[in-house]
Amino acid sequence: MEKTGSRGIGVKGEPVRVVFCGTPAFAVPTLLALHERGVHLVQVVTQPDRPRGRGQKPAPSPVKTAADRLGLSVLQPYRIRDPEVVRHLASSAAHALVLVAYGQILPKGLLDAFPFGALNVHPSLLPKYRGAAPIQRTILHGDTETGVSIMLMDEGMDTGPILAVERVPIKAHDTFGTLHDTLARVGADLLCRTLEAWVQGRCHPVAQDDSQTILAPPIQKHELHINWQEPAAAVCCRIRAFDPWPGAFGFHGSKRIKFFHARLSAYTAQGRPGEVLGLCRDGLLVCAGDGTSVAVGRLQVEARRPVSADAFLRGYDLPIGSTFA
What we know:
Layout: E1 10-11, E2 14-15, E3 17-22, H1 28-36, E4 40-45, E5 50-52, E6 57-59, H2 62-70, E7 74-75, H3 83-90, E8 96-100, H4 108-111, E9 118-122, E10 128-130, H5 134-140, E11 145-152, E12 162-169, H6 176-199, E13 214-215, H7 232-241, E14 248-252, E15 255-268, E16 276-280, E17 283-287, E18 292-301, E19 307-308, H8 309-315
Parallel strand pairs: 3-4, 3-8, 4-7, 8-9, 10-13
Antiparallel strand pairs: 1-2, 5-6, 9-11, 11-12, 14-15, 15-18, 16-17, 17-18, 18-19
Helix pairs in contact: 1-2, 1-6, 5-7
């Protein structure tokens, strides 16, 4: 698909009218890209303000913050399935709905309300990693490639036909954070190009191959706990999948410690799984279950901030030979 130019996205000589549904930071680049391309954002829909931070004061979503900055109309329904909400959005005369990580399931009446349907930006190569945590699951599984799929939504969970795909390599040091930001940028550009081609009849939906489905359910708390019996490659993937948030963890005695900036190390030693082997250029060396080691660049003891491995050792009693559980 060709890169879009500076002209606006239009249909029948007028700017495309879009209802945008999104909530977290991942959705913001797409919102901004649509605005920059001259799309008429008739309504931005996002989740209600939620308690955040230590004070647990209600705070707007990243999408609401961005939309307010652009002077766009914002709607924050508690239930998007509410008939009044559906009627309001359906009467907006929008050509299409664009959804990016909104956080609620859209009813069929809303999916069918727009001439060009509802387009979804999904950060995986569908049908791989359908569900709520595709980026984390991709890293956990040790994949070397991911991407963004633009899907025409149906009533299923990420089951609709595909309009466009862009592949993205996963680098050895990529984390959830770096891959999240890369896929958000790629998705924003791909959505704009796909929307333009779709409304102009230049792309066609392709059904997903359900036999290739891999599910990506929400991350459970127990999955954050590192199993040092696993091979170093698997331990490294687990740390990277939850870096910078919420952080994979282990225990030293009764202390919960989070691990970040993990690298595979060529260093081998006769150590127990979870045993601290020393300090190297890439961080703290910890033995894994296959006899190889992981270098951890940053660590965080509970109630403190993450710090570099050498700073951690200066402020925390962790002798060589200590073991994480």
